[in-house]
Amino acid sequence: MPRFRETTLQSTPSVPRKERIKDPKDIMRSVDPAALYMLEKAKDQNLISSYDRFAAQQPQCAFGYEGICCRICFQGPCRIKPGDGPGSKGICGATAYTIVARNIARMMAGGASAHSDHGRHIVHALLHAAEGKLADFKVTDVEKLNRVAERIGISAEGKTENELAVEVSKAALEDFGRQTDEPCTWLRTTITDGRNKKFADCCIAPTAIDRSVVSLLHQTHIGTDADPVNIIFGGLKCGLADYVGMHISTDLSDVLFGTPKPVVTEANLGVIKEDKVNVIVHGHNPILSQTVVNVAKEMEAEAKAAGATGIQLSGICCTGNEVLMRSGVPIATNFSSQELAIMTGAVDVMVVDVQCIMPSVQAVAECFHTKIVTTMDISKIPGAHHFAFDEEHAVESAKAVIRLAIEGYKNRQGMVCDIPQIKSKVIAGFSVEAIVELLAAINPETPIKVLTDAVEAGELAGVALLCGCNNLESVHDNNHLTIARELTKNNVFVVTTGCSAQALAKAGMMAPEAIEEYAGEGLKNFLKRLADANQDKLTDGLPLVFHMGSCVDNSRAHDLSTLMAKQLNVDTPKVPFVASAPEAMSEKAVSIGAGAVAMGYPTHVGTMPPIEGSPLVFGIATQIASDVYGGYFIFETDPMVAAAKLLASLDNRTWKLGIHKKTAEKYETQLCENY
Ligand code: SF4
Ligand code: SF4
Questions:
Q1: Which long-range contacts (CB under 8 A, 24 or more apart) does 22-27 make?
Q2: Is 586 close to ligand 2, i.e. is its CB under 6 Å away?
Q3: 265-319 pLDDT, tens digit each
């Protein structure tokens, strides 16, 4: 195990590009047994899914894959060819490094837009509920509201909870559109002093989310910025704006719907029930889906009157994670296998909101009785039902969705359903507050010290966030599972979000039994101590990996690392904390990754973003970022090698921290200021 970060080991993917090209005949690209079962069925019935389309796209265009295709103006597309002739630059003279940097930065702008527009929707819902304009929503978690208000400097004294919620919502809206040069409140108040100083020194602290996105799109317009360092650092600013949008989403969703606590549920296609009315919620925004969950309980009788034994809700992607975390709704599956859920023939309605909904769900649904219901003005699919959802009529809309599903259930009678009987037990619901409460059972005064002590003592090798999507570039779920198994075997405390969490949940890694099967001795002892101290609260024990929620809830993992940094008296780049998106694919994954690097984490990406066309930009992401911010990207497509690189990063950080702490103790002084 290298003591110092071995830069060539860290930054160069171990699998060369030509070995990453896939066999177009191989569509059985999953390790999820339920997905494989459904893929066999799809083959028998000539149903086409993303797995077939992935195969049909092979081999993918090398220019696009490496990021050296520019379509920013329509003189193009310009493709960069090797050598130094006229073909080695775009028509405007843009070099490979400018084109790669602009393309990847624009992905960051796209990702930040998606997270923060979601966040804005939540802020408006809270504001309007607190102003008394929405009968179906209210402040549910007053304690969280008070904590958020205190953190951002708003006094609760003498105010009703609605008055306070109005003020907090207006402060959040300021973070979207502020025109002065003050950094976003949700950035300034949630990170370490060291990070605040670093972002100010490097001029990458966003002052407003919308402004950061607009500036980056301007910066990357034809004929504006050609400097790849400047463009990538502009992208990092947008990555931090993305962080602000995510944090606002998490905080205010908790205020509206409650802060997650441990829940027990199940995951994988086996949660769909033939004898029930099946409604799948899919997308990202919890506003409608949480209302569907609340309303479904009241509509059980209607479902039974139609001959069903009840209503079965389940989730896909991050809407699924939101309702799992707060209400224990089971997970049906994750991103890549979303069409396969419909192919069971038992889904009566799939209600979708925004992001990560494959347009093809409608085409698959047309082969069955399933109805796809779109609900958001900006997210429609030709052929699908559109129920325009507005918060003023939330319960009414949710009831309409469930009634459509009950009709669907009636229509499905006599049709064949084929549901793979595969599912795993899941213990989830680990907000930072829930984790701190568990730790407080051991150390009520300084709960986080239980975690940092375990790291400093070598019982834990550190903390890793596994997050992000599926990408059929890798075998569906395989990178998530391999990396999680390797990390936990080596005593890393793993927290997880997004489709990564769903992959781990489906594979049984959120069941207590997984601890015995996969955890190294140190992690086993740590989790046992935690479970023993919380016996009264935990009816079903603790899981091996801790589900922290949806993609926007990566903000919860950031908060955990900030708590650790404060306890260890260092800045976040010194904390033994790493992040990995083993199967990243979305623009949001790029902006999340940019934010994570700026915060100082070694950040692994297991599927190649379009960056290899410029060794200079590749070097900025893997080396220069590290020199300036302490965080850096690790691009590695082999999950075993990726796990080794993440472990080496943690090992390096823990070792350095130990050396500095010992030196400080020896000379009876503080940790070196620049450390
Ligand atoms: S911006 Fe330049 S490189 Fe890009 S398409 Fe236009 S001319 Fe080509
Ligand atoms: S993790 Fe990726 S694929 Fe999954 S819901 Fe989030 S953005 Fe979509």
A1: 22/54, 22/55, 22/58, 22/59, 22/473, 23/58, 24/55, 24/56, 24/58, 24/59, 25/55, 26/55, 27/51, 27/52, 27/54, 27/55
A2: yes
A3: 999 999 999 999 999 999 999 999 999 999 999 999 999 999 999 999 999 999 9
Q: Is the CB of residue 642 less than 8 Å from the CB of residue 585? A: no
Nearest ligand for residue 337 CA: 2
Please tell me the number of the ligand nearest to residue 88's CA.
1
Q: Ligand 2 centre from 451 Cα, in Å?
A: 28
Ligand 2 neighbourhood includes 22 CB (under 6 angstroms): no
Distance CA 277, CA 250 (A): 30
Check if the beta carbon of residue 161 is closer than 8 Å to that of residue 139: yes
Query: Which helix (H) or strand (E) is 328 found in, with range?
Result: none
Going by C-alpha positions, the residue among 320, 276, 280 that lies closest to residue 300 is 276
Contact in structure between 250 and 556 (CB atoms under 8 Å) = yes
Please state the atom number of ligand 2 nearest to the C-alpha of residue 317: 5
CA of 554 to the centre of ligand 2 (A): 12
Rounded to whole angstroms, the Cα distance separating 456 from 473 reads 37
Helix, strand, or coil (residue 371): strand
The pTM score is 0.96
Ligand 2 mean position, distance from CA 588 (Å): 8
